[in-house]
Amino acid sequence: MPKYRVERVSQEILREVNDILLKTVKDPRVQNVTITDVEVTGDLQHATVYYSTLEKDEQAREDTQTGLDKIAGLVRSEIGNRIKLYKTPEIRFERDQSLEQGQRIEKILRDLK
Per CATH, is 3-112 categorized as 3.30.300.20? Predict the structure, then answer.
């Protein structure tokens, strides 16, 4: 399968997941979630949705992950209704660690000065 199709599908899923989280989901655990990226496998069977939050508390992060895991089925069915694919990909949510890594690197560089 051409790579451009996988990228188009991942961008479409990113847009739809953002819309679903804003308009459909009412769970307070996932209200302040920002979708940063979506990776779809080459066969379009699995999609990993990366998200970030501004929460510093570890318990709040776990609650957010639990909330997202609970709504994964709803998100998948909504994506199936909105995007016409042969098979709707299995959705998995993962926390995006790039913000924390960037802050840690920035702190190290400031400490070196």
Answer: yes
